Amino acid sequence: MPPTSSAGDPLATTNPAIQFCNVSYRFDGGSELLDNLDLDIQVGETLVLLGRSGSGKTTTLKLINHLLEPTGGDIRVQGKSTREWDPIRLRRSIGYAIQEVGLFPHFTVERNIGLVPQIEAWPADRIRQRVSELMQLVGLDPRLAARYPRELSGGQRQRVGVARALAADPPILLMDEPFGALDPITRAELQNEFQALQKRLKKTCVFVTHDLREALMLGTRIALMEGGHLVAVLTPDEFQNSIQPAVKAYVEAFGTNCRS
Hints:
Order of helices and strands: EEEHEEHEHHHHEHEHEEHH
Radius of gyration: 18 Å
Structural class: alpha/beta
Oligomer: single chain
Strand order of the largest sheet: 6-7-8-3-9-10
Distance between the termini: 31 Å
């Protein structure tokens, strides 16, 4: 069944920031991990890729910044095929935050956040100013700048990861279950902070999760994936009220009070 979408969506009036055009991905000649994916991600929206483990969410994310190359179809980022982008330039234009954070343990917080601007040869004073701005933006005490990742809590490390993803002011953010390893209270705090941050910055964000409550809270639209297929693309309200069997089953699995 083709994915459904809301009619008259105001986001559809702009040119997509990211386009998947009949994209497939097969791993080393094995089974298809993605099959004929067609999806437009609009400028400034937070599209949540939702689904159980193995549904193709992270594969989809990695295709955007050319960590993987499609075996069929084409992906366009800012109007240009990922095959035509220089991979390094593409990745530096995209912020990437993951569940494991991936901070360099031998770098301080300040150096971790300022890594991409440093690679881009920003002046040292501009990097320091940017790091200070971002630490304030994500709710990090400025006194933590000289600490190392091992000296931080899980929530603090995740904040550093988000700040690093934003450091060079990329137009696109990719977030792969960034809050999934945190305790429920810290996770809720970071979800609230990310929601406020996105309202302020209006980045194009692709956010991977298997948690429906998180998807309903953070997503402009929710793209449900199953077995490498796109099942539905709906707004949060449409998702909760859908009669489509796969969507309804996902909602029922999380209970009736998904937004609470």
